[in-house]
Amino acid sequence: MNNPARRRQTGRCLVAALALTARLVVHAEPAPPSADVAAATNTVPARLSLAEAQHLALARNWDLLAAKSDVDIAFAQRLIAREFPNPTLSLSSAFINVDNHPSGTVMGNGVWDRNYDTIAAISQLLEIGGKRASRKTSALEGWRVARARFADARRLLDQGVANAYIAALLATENARILRASAAALRQEAQIAATRFQAGEIAATDQKQIEIAADQLELEAQSAEAAATSARVNVEVLLGVRHPLGQWTAVDTFANLVTKPMPRDRLEPATPRPDLLAAESAKAKADADLKLQKAYRVPDPTVEFQYEHNPPDFPNTVGVGISLPLPLWNHNRGAIEAARSATEQARAQVEKVRGQIAADIINARIAYDDAAARLARYTQSIQPRSQAVTETIAFAYHKGGASLLDLLQAERNDNDVRLAAAQAASDTAIAAAALEAALAVEPSGESPR
User: Fold this and answer.
1) How many separate helices (H) and strands (E) can be counted in the chain?
2) Tens digit of pLDDT for each residue in 51-103?
3) CA 418, CA 176: separation in Å to the nearest integer?
4) Alpha helices in 47-130 (DSSP H)
5) How many Å apart are CA 290 and CA 294, to the nearest integer?
6) pTM of this prediction?
7) Which of 214, 222, 373, 431 keeps 20 to 30 A from 399, CA to CA?
C-alpha cells in the first residue's frame, strides 16, 4: 500500500463507486407510500385497500379528531370536579382618629406599634350533603359518555369509509363494463365494415353499430368521472387536504362479498358504543339530580381571624362560621330540570336499544336480499345473457339475425353486467352495515 500509483488507483476506484451509488440513489424509483407513511404525510397510497383506508381515517378524519378532543375536555372536567374550592384570604387595617389623638402608642411609633386596627382572616367553604361526591360522579360519567361517543364515531366512520370505498369501486367497475361493451361493438363495427365491402349488409348497419359504440364510450367517460368523484369522497373522509382521486382500489367485489359474516348473531357480542354512551348519560343525569338536591343544604364557610389593635388589645384570635339561610330559594327549579333530564336520558336508553335491534334486523334483511340477487346474477342470469349475446352475434355474422337483434342483445348483456355489479356493491354495503350494527371490527375478527 506504500506504492503511490497503487494508492492513486484505489482512490479513483473509490470515487467512481461513490459516484455510481449517488446516481442510483438519485434515479431510484420511489416506493409507494404505506398507510403509516401516508398518515404522517397527508397523502394517499397509489394503491389503497379498504383496511388501509379505514386505518388512515382513524388517524386523520376531522370529525373523529373532534370527538377525541371531546374526550380530552371531559377528562379535564374530571380534574376540575376533584378540586377543592380555594380558601379566601382577607386583610384590612383601619385607623380611627378620635379627638386628634396621635397614632403613636406607648409601644412606639412604628407601623406595627401604632393604634391601627389590623385584621387578617382566612375563610374556607366546606361542601356538605354529598355535593363533591355527586359532582365527581357526574364528571366521571361525562368522561365515559365522551369515550363511548368517540368509539361510536369510529364505528360509524368505518362504515362510512366502507360505503365510500365501495361506491368508488362500483363506479370504476361500471366504467370498465361500459368500456368493454364499447370495445365489443367496435369489433362488431370492423366486422360490419368487411361485410359491407363484400355487399352483404347495408351501410346503415355499420353506422348504427358505430353510433351504439360511441354512446357506450360516452357513458363510460361519465362513469369514469363519477369514479374520480367517488375516490375524492373517500379522500375527504381520510382527511386529505387536497384530494385528487388518483388512487387505485386494491380490493375487489370478489373478496369483499366472500368474507365470512356473523350470520347467526342477533345482538352485539358486547354492548354497542352508542348504548354505552346512552347509559352513561343516564348515570350522569342521575348524579346531576342528586347534586341539585344536595344544593338545598347550605354550605358553611369557616373563618379564622387574627386581629392586632394596640395598645389595649394587641392580639386577638377568633373563629367564625357563616352560611346562607334557605328561606326563599330551595333550588326547586334546578331539581325539576334535572329530574326531567333524567327521564329523558332513561327514554334515550330504551330508544337506542330499539334502534340497535332495528339496525341489526334491517342490515341482515338487506344483506340476505343483496347476496341472493348477486348469486342469481353470477350463477344464472349473467352466463345465460352472455351465451345469448354470443349466439345472436354469430347468427348476425352468418346472416341469420338482424342488426336490431344484435344491438338489443348487446344492450341487454351490458345492463345485466351493470346490474350484477350493483348487486355486488349492495352486498358489500349491506355487509358493512351488518358489521357496524353488530359492532364488529372491520377485519371481522373480534367485536369492539
Assistant:
1) 11, 6
2) 999 999 999 998 898 889 999 999 999 999 999 889 999 998 877 665 556 66
3) 10
4) 50-60, 62-82
5) 6
6) 0.76
7) 214
